[in-house]
Amino acid sequence: TTEIYTLSLHDALPISSSTELPKTVDPYRLAEQQIVLEGEIPLQALSRFGDSVFGFEDGAVCRVSLSFSMDGERRRMVTGELEAPVTLECQRCMGPMQKTLVSRFTLGLVTSDEQAQQLPKELEPFLTDDFSADLWSLTEDELLLVLPPFPLHERDECPAREELEAFEPDESGDEPVRKSEDNPFSVLADLKTKKH
Predict the structure, then answer these.
(1) pLDDT over 80 (residue 140)
(2) CA proximity to 128, closest of 119, 118, 138, 120
């Protein structure tokens, strides 16, 4: 059976659902006990992530659910789901755009590179100390991995849509159709037949 705990940073008693996820835990003990942790991390506390996005609202949080378990070969794992509302910079209009980043992942807990190499291909390694794992750093890494490399508004929602329509042909097929006898190399053929 899996137990679900909502933990705050300061005490381990079940409390309300808007609690802060603990920063560090013993992931191996949690895996052996098949514990699920649910909580929130203030986005302002994730400095690398904050530097990578256009911004986020004051008080914005990443909602986190982490399920610690063991597989049939006694490998310790953590399966997680993250959700964070952020503002990204549209690379078309350079304006702000709202997006909710979502990440789902399963990681194998390891304490060395040798252990990481022994994991099956479907498991990414999560390198930890023997009795301590930084859950906030894990969350920040996973959020950075799901950032879109080239964020864009939907075409019809982009403030730059008028400029887009001027430079990009409409997808309705209104482009002029080239006649089959229009050969782009016909100019070269004409030059070849003319004598200097």
Answers:
(1) yes
(2) 138
Residues 6+ apart with CB under 8 A from 39: 6, 7, 8, 19, 20, 21, 22, 64
- Give the pLDDT band (50/70/90) at residue 195: low
Q: Round to whole Å and give the CA distance between 8 and 19.
A: 5
pLDDT of residue 134: 96
Can you say whether residue 74 is alpha, beta or left, with left for phi > 0 and alpha for psi between -120 and 50 degrees?
left
For residue 98, give the nearest of 83, 88, 110, 111 by alpha carbon.
88
**Averaged pLDDT for residues 27-41:** 95
DSSP 55: B
The pLDDT tens digits for 166-186 are 666 555 545 544 554 566 666
End-to-end Cα distance, the chain: 91
Are the CB atoms for 89 and 97 separated by under 8 Å?
yes
> Which of 141, 167, 132, 151 is CA-nearest to residue 49?
141
Beta bridge partner(s), residue 98: 87
C-alpha gyration radius of the chain: 26
Beta bridge partners of 6: 38
Say how far apart CA 42 and CA 157 lie, in whole Å. Answer: 29
